[in-house]
Amino acid sequence: MGRIIAIDFGLKRSGIAVTDPLKIIASGLSTVPTAEVLRFLQQYCVQEEVESFVVGLPLHPDGNPAQIASQADDFARKLGELFPGKPVFRQDERYTSSDAKRIILASGVKKQKRRDKALVDKIAAALILEQYMMEHHW
To answer: N or C: which end of the chain has fewer CB within 10 A?
Structure first.
């Protein structure tokens, strides 16, 4: 059984989350500079069996594509080309960053750590993956 990887794509850095092999739990894995994400995923897929990918779909609250949407689309396309045997799904990522910030605040993390944007990206990726799993009954 393979894992599912989710990516919260960003222009500077991207958050990455992964399921356990049984696809029960979604956990933040890492935050990687966006220029290095595809290489990171290649190395990860050598070590772990990955079944599919989920890339966040950046939308405004009204459902229109966000400014970064075309870059996220290009990334999803490149990901599909790099891993032709693994499907790449898209998942609405509206509010995941604000929800991630709220989760970090509620967890009692110290102020300095709450400012860590990499932590927000990793948690946002986990939220994208959780939403995908809930909508597809994993």
So the answer is: N
